[in-house]
Amino acid sequence: MTVTEDNPNTGYKWVGTHQIRPDGLDKVTGKARFGADLVLPGMLHGRVLRSPHAHARIVSIDTSDAEAMEGVRAVITGADFPDLVEAGRSTADIAVAANAMARDKVLYEGHPVAAVAATTRELAAAAVKAIKVTYEVLGHVLTVDEAMADGAPLLHDGMITNGVDPKPETPSNVAAKTTFERGDLDKGFAEADMVVEREFTTKPVHQGYIEPHAAVADCGQDGRATLWCSSQGHFAMRAYACTVLGWDTGRLKVIPAEIGGGFGGKTVIYLEPLAVRLSQKAGRPVKLVMDRDEVFRATGPTSGSRMKVKMGMTNEGRITAAQVWLAFEAGAFPGSPVGAASMCALACYDLENFLIEGYDVVVNKPRVAAYRAPGAPISAFAVESVVDELAKGIGMDPIDVRLANAAKEGTQAPYGPKMPRVGLIETLEAIKNHPNYQAELGPNQGRGVACGFWFNAGMNSSATVHVNEDGTVTVVTGSPDIGGSRQSMALMAAETLGIAYDRIRPVVADTETVGFNDVTGGSRVTLATGAAVVESCEKVIESLRERAAKTWDCEVDEVEWVDGQAQRSDGSQPPLSLGDLASKAGRTGGPISANASLNARGVGAGYSTQMADIEVDPETGVSRIVRYTTAQDAGRAISPQYVEGQFQGGVAQGIGWALNEEYVHGTDGRMQNQSFLDYRIPVASDLPMIDTVIVEVPNPAHPYGVRGVGEVGIVPPMAAVANAINGAIGVRMEALPMSPPSILAAVNDQS
Amino acid sequence: MSRRHVNCTINGDSADFLTEDFTTLLNALRDEVGLMGAKEGCGTGDCGACSVLMDGHVTCACLIFAPEAEGRTIVTVEGLADHTELHPLQQAFLENAALQCGICTPGFLVAAKALLDRNPDPTETEIRYALAGNLCRCTGYDKIIRAVQDAAEQLRANA
Amino acid sequence: MNYTSPTTVEEAAAALASTPGARVFAGATDVVPQMRSGRIAPEVLVDLKGIEELTSVSVDDEKWTIGAAVATARLTEDPTFSAEFPGLCEAAGLIGSDQIQNRSSLGGNLCNASPAADSVPAMVANHARAVVAGPGGRRVVDVADIPTGPGSTSLGAGEFVVAIEVDRKPASTGEAYLRITPRTEMDIAIVGAGARVTLDENGVCTAATVSLGAVAPTVVRVPDAEAALVGSTLDDEALAACAAAASAMCSPIDDMRGTVEYRTQVAGVLARRAVVAAAERARG
């Protein structure tokens, strides 16, 4: 279902249609090559040795036995990488390098300590076992509570909290504090008829991509290397890898493989610099692939948290004050998404009085990585639960409460700027008007509603468009395609140029054949790379008009481009199609192509409202999603089927996060559930069909009205589910995941 | 090191390969036979990305020792299309946008084929339970289920 | 060579006896992950699936004989068996996904000796027996006597299970297996309950078995629950006593799948529901 705001720019020929995606055939026939699918002659197999301790000093590493073993061609440790501390590099760069390969300390179970390359997998595994490491085990901290406690062991000596005034004198595990405030909290709470204050905890959850990290590196004897890896951004991989290696970026060429899921978790490096260094030392290509348990133990989940939310509301449903306190686990190095979570926590509402404080806390777990709208789903769980409790407390429909406070054009966002035209209200109304909202609920069933916000990103993209002699057009971008963006590029190119979709060839090129692109993330590719594609196409159209003018011996402004053809404004010549002009290009000035590089402006923020119907067995705590509906503002759905797919994917991840996903650590600091058996992502039989409403409130700043759609869908589900559980059995869940044992415990506590 | 010579049928062709005894069928298919369609998502039988048909039954290739393939008939995703024609499941996946990143798609296609071979008219619930052994993180399964329903209808019409 | 595929029980027994680190396997659905994690490191793997006796199912007037290596998918597909033992089929069918079902076996599920094994409470509730072959010949034992603790069995050196025997089900008897998992599939049971009841023409229970999985180091029968049911009409009072007895029988652990409190409480709920389901089948 699509609900489109009146807009004079509808009536597109290609944008908004259903097409077969250009990479689809390879993916359904097994031909598509993902990170682990490349084989090179003479290739060695790599394996990483990882710390068994959550926190320890590395006293010594003896690799001599491993180096002497059959088939072993290279062994590396931290000593094989430049010392960025000594080189005076930034703390951010130092963290990237230290996370890739530990130097003097290991900071989490799974932290890489050494790596080998050998002629077979089995020999590499045996060699890793022969590396002798002596550790001095240190005390560890696993939660924000433990990390912030007095006398807690420190991960980084000398880390003083940023963002606190006056500056603390003693180091701690708190890397930074973020604060947003407005108005007068006390006055606001005094005006409220009802105040709710709750404390929440969440656990780390993993992005859960089905493809483990994989990289193949081939370093020549000239010291230059080619790296083949699946990532969300090969330019970023090049930059990070070269930081770790101590190389100029020009020494490394990165070729993007197809990527088997990222969700933010593949915007950072893990194996890549290790594979390059091993290949350099061995003088042969090296393939390094993670096992699933390595993915869990050593790649970024998103943060676990403790949160406190206090909100006040009048009997008419107006929120008068909101206070949000967040402490997020950053993992081993600073950089949790608590900043974004702080910015998004109250962004659905127009508020006069609020205080948001967010703390970035290091703990002895893998460094967190981005996970789809990083941080926002976590704070939304807390805020949307409290809004729900207030709505029920004053006896008002939860959608009406949100409508009474909804952010819209002109609202000042909690993080500063005034909102441009946005579609939250339209998504709220879409859910309110949806037949599912009237569906009858059975015994032990409840309905929950929640909203979410994500800014979406712009950032840098480049594109090149070439016109081929036969009139087909190659669109070259540098954004790895993780959700079907190649198709969107082709659709926008077809629309802009006025030629058929199947005449467009979209290509994702490597770091040597296209200009710089920031990562595929932040829901930015359709917007930003799309804008670069559109701009390139518009320049191509300019060239085509010039060629037509030359052919007709007239002025360029006497030539119009209409429906893929050059037309003489006075109609005195038959039109020239793109194909005609392409075949003559050599005679009219040479091959026709254009490129565009931009930092995208006019990003359109995204809102989603969602509704969950859940059934809970009060005797066992087992729950089942009966019905799920999501409405999200896409601005303009370039490829509606794939836009729906993004909505549904975000919802499914949110449901898993809500009900069953969590990292389980023993007191020894080791992860206990590092497999898909015990890290429980939803399976097909856990979910119903996910009903979607594509709301289109076009982004006025984009040629086709696009807003990013990839992320905001994961923001509401946990609260929607928690609110539904509350409706079903009357318990207010304060901790994620809401698994059967925790639901049953809450039922028991209540009675 | 001496390796075992295994003879079997893969995607309708006589095939043979050398293998260590404890190597899994998944690694043998990828490393020795060169068929990369089956993927390792977990290596422990929990994700289904390595699903293949062995004598017509869907199994995780990561849980089979390569020597067990001796004399057996194996079908991978690469064996679903017939010359120039995609299998209706493959076509239905494309038309229904039932894939996003595509890493789980080979496993789903093989498992769905096994389902429709034994049950040509499954209910939505039957499809969901038959495919519960295949994890997808991108789609939320909705469009995958619709694609299987579409393909089932197509196959029944062709029969 | 580290893999061998004998065609007779005697060959398999000989292979086991002749190599110290030899181990039998059927579907390998637990063997592969355990080798991968280093939990086990066999020298030689003896594939039982080449032995006809271990991969066939037969039935006579007295009993069913199910080869220990029969894939559970083949077993649950058998229309006669699934009509007679729907509960045991449910249990076997819950061992995992379709992919797992085409490899998992009753013998493997039993001898892997996970406290949460799904088929074991149902086999125990149905008085199933294991036929064991080894250096001393064959012997027959109750299925419940095979697992002795998590990951360990009473099998001696060189012994392996050849078949599972289940007597033909008496009239007016029904059996069921239920379990709790957080997801609908692909999970290890947090609690599992098997039940079987026989009713007379007045609806009075004349025989009952109640068994629990995942609440103790091995599967447990609940004699107090059974005693509460026999002689009753399975009324609310009897069911409540059954549930209480089931909860009391538990000695579970806290682990990442469930807490002691949860397992204990839910064991009672499941035992009652399994008895109710079994009774419905007995009447139907």
Task: Explain briefly what this protein structure is.
The complex is a heterotrimer of chains A (751), B (159) and C (284). Chain A has 751 residues and is an alpha+beta fold. In chain A, 28% of the residues lie in helices and 24% in strands.
Account of the 3D structure:
The complex is a heterotrimer of chains A (751), B (159) and C (284). Chain A is an alpha+beta fold. In chain A, strand 22 (565-568) and strand 23 (576-577) form a beta hairpin. The relative contact order of chain A is 0.13. The mean pLDDT of chain A is 95. With 159 residues, chain B is of the alpha+beta class. Helix content of chain B is 35%, strand content 16%. Chain B has 5 helices and 5 strands. Chain B has a 5-stranded mixed beta sheet, with helices on both faces. The longest helix of chain B is centred in the last third of the chain and has 17 residues, at 142-158. With 284 residues, chain C is α+β, with helices and mostly antiparallel strands. Chain C folds into 2 domains: 51-167, Uridine Diphospho-n-acetylenolpyruvylglucosamine Reductase, domain 3; 173-283, 2-Layer Sandwich (Enolase-like, domain 1), CATH 3.30.390.50. Chain C contains 11 helices and 14 strands. In chain C, the strands form 4 sheets. In chain C, strands 4-5-10-6-7 form a 5-stranded antiparallel beta sheet. The chains are: A alpha+beta (751), B alpha+beta (159), C alpha+beta (284). Chains A and B meet through helix 1 and helix 18 of A and helix 2, helix 3, helix 4 and helix 5 of B.
